[in-house]
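Hi there,

I know you've been waiting on this one. I reran it after we fixed the sequence typo, so this is the corrected version. Both the input and the resulting structure follow.
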Amino acid sequence: MAEYQLKGKEASVMMEYAKEYQSIQEDEGVFSSPFLAVKNTTTTQYNEILKKYFKPEQRYEYLYKAPILFAYDYVLFSALALILTFTGLRFVLTKEFKNDHIRWVRKVKYPPLKLLEMTALVFGFFIFVHIEYLVTKTVGNSNFFQSHLILSQYLLPALAMSGIVMTFQITLSALPKKLMVMDDQLIIKSISYYSKKFPLNEIESIEISKTLFYPFPISKWIRKVGFRYFNFSMKFWKPGLLINMKNGKAYFFSIESAKDAQRELVQFIPESKLNPVDHNIAA
């Protein structure tokens, strides 16, 4: 204890200090008591140290003010942002469905749907956390945001709530749930409110393709299908439905009784081609 100039404190506290000082001495090869360093620092030296490190360009500002309405009112604004974002996305993404105009419906094969939804939400939350981290580190912690009450205490939490709703919506929108024919359009209905529509006359052909063989050669798979490959069936060896578009793109869906689905769907497509099982993608 005497070596490190420790005295006047409880034994347990002094032992913690002694261990820390010993570690510094082992790492640096020399140790100087911080108490003696402060004691021997003159007023001039102390002022010079302050001038060196406490410069205006190095300041970091946080603004602490009373809430605008009441304590934790930012929670109310965040909840409001969440509700408005959800309602707005539902209004924008929801398409008008004329139920009496639907001519054909088939479900995309999935494992238990709730399990898939939970997996998608976990994946969406994973993406959101990383985006939030980047935004917080680059924008949220800036002096500009932290020096304004509205921006730091209200806007950032509200944006976070909106961001998580949008991330979940995008994740669920990427997963198709049903294929439907309504009038002269093919509709890919997602798990969420989003639906993708395109005219039936944009379809070039419909094929049956076995999943085990379909992705090869890989270059053609990436070019034609890419992220439009929706095979989530537990029976991955079963054939699925491959819809080739005239623009060169293609969609693959795992569907129960793909051959029957092909035979049914092709009836709605003008000048369509009914192709047999093909283990490769046409160039």
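Quick highlight: The longest strand covers residues 203-210.

Best,
R. S.
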